[in-house]
Amino acid sequence: MTMKRLMVPVVVAAALLTGCATQPAPINDEPQLLLATPQQADPQIEVQVAKLSELLTVPDLTEQQRARFLYDRGLRYDALGLRTLARIDFNLALQLQPDYTDVYNFIGIYATQAMEFDQAYEAFDAVLELDPQYSYAYLNRGIALYYGERPDLAVQDFTTFLLDEPNDPYRVIWLYLAQHQLDPEQALIQLADHRTRLDDDNWSTGLVDLYLGRISGGELLASSREGLQKQGELAERLCEAYFYLGKQARLQGQSGKAMNLYKLALATNVYEFVEHRYALLEMREIAEGAMKEAQARVNPPQQ
Asked: For this UniProt entry, which residues form the secretion signal (predicted)?
């Protein structure tokens, strides 16, 4: 799909090769951490950015061609983690082609990351008005609604998204997270039901099993090294694993542990994954919550 600190520092025993991992000794019975070399910028993508930039200097391009090249360059900026440059290109593309559904989708994603929820809702609504079959707009609008504290509407969007592919563990997890905000017990019942339609051989099914209590965090991390088929896949799995472990920690009221897990998710540099995109937003929510608690202690409400 994509998209994932303990209370003590992580100590790396030795430099890691790409796709390799190390396991520090367990501390305070916490899961043994796996660390992979962060994903590196793909030189081919950098070359593509240069070529697209050159094409955009051609004077006789149509507005539609220029919009397409701006969108394509924005995609590559996004893959490189250059999100400000990507957002500039997406906005320029939309000015040239106001019915560009893919651009609206990215503008909504970026607005969600910036916690500009009204702008995000408008962008995703525009996507679905232009193309009601644009499935991922339901996921992305659902995420915006989830972080915008409108879980009832988020559940509707995540349910629609899940219907398109009921055997996708990530769709199951996001629906569960939204349902948990409304009724934790019923959400767990629904999660167990959705689990019956998932493939046991799919590594990401372990993320669902984590929330069901069928495996531990340590077992999830250990499984992330199994069956790797491509360079960088370990970093991708760890991005997801640490994000959802962080979400679990937050649900259990362990904000400090969650903060450290989100840092590990961000350290993978898997910029295009949903889990990497929203780890920083999660950290921002934790920090703002801690600040409000501190202010409340300093200035308690008048009786």
From this structure: 1-24
